[in-house]
Amino acid sequence: MKGEFSGVWSEMWRKVWKKLSDHRDAPDDLFCELYRELERSFVTRLDPATELANIIDDQEQARIAFRSTKVFKVDGEAGIVKFLERAHEALEELGYPQLIDRYFELVADFIQTYSLRYELRRPFTLHPTLPGVFAKLFNDLRTTTQQDAALNMAMHEFEESVRDLRNGQSSARIKTCIHKQMNLLEVIAGQCPGVTAGSLGAMCDQVDTWPHATIREAMKKLYGFGSDYPGIRHGGNPASALRDIEMRDMVAVSVLLAGFAPYLSDRLDPSKIYAGGDA
Questions:
Q1: Which of 81, 97, 158, 181 is the most exposed place for a label (fewest CB within 10 A)?
Q2: Where among 128, 162, 184 does a domain terminate?
């Protein structure tokens, strides 16, 4: 995914590791130590007594092995993050403060250059940012919907309605956008285990993921807004409208509805949405 280390792993050699190895305090066995930590994040671990030992006991082999490691060998985005943090610990054990600072600066610059979804804090911990979490939620929602024809169609219609706003931000287009997103959530909720109801409002009563009744009722009230406000899902009640629909409603309601998706789908992994990784 865009915004994750896994998507730009191949660029890290040039932007981080090569520059780190050129630092005056970098020891000759730098890549022996780094590869030792990287291997701990492999999907398939090497035999420590043979394969791994042969690599980390040879400085040149370690450098070659480290540089040639492809991202698919590493256990996802979480594996990369854990490795980067362990690499800092390994550098601390070497005892070169300026080398440690250089590593921090290189990774921080790398995050900024590629607009990655992390904030780097001292001494060296990577924290997902809120914009990154939202972007991951939408990305995983799109990935999930691509796995089912009905979901894919509903997502396509919603995204098309959003794109259509480029041609004019009229209340009619905004209402269509909100309507299509509610349709999408309705299809998503309809595929939850145990759900048999035909409308999103009734489905909310059958979904058992809510932490509190008020959260469930908030979703139902949003759905009720779509039904009651004239022209979104139905003719509605004209007397209930306090003003015309505008872009602030499109932005606010879209974000709110997307935020309810993890309650309505058992296909979204909240831990991966926060920490990163494949959906």
A1: 97
A2: 128
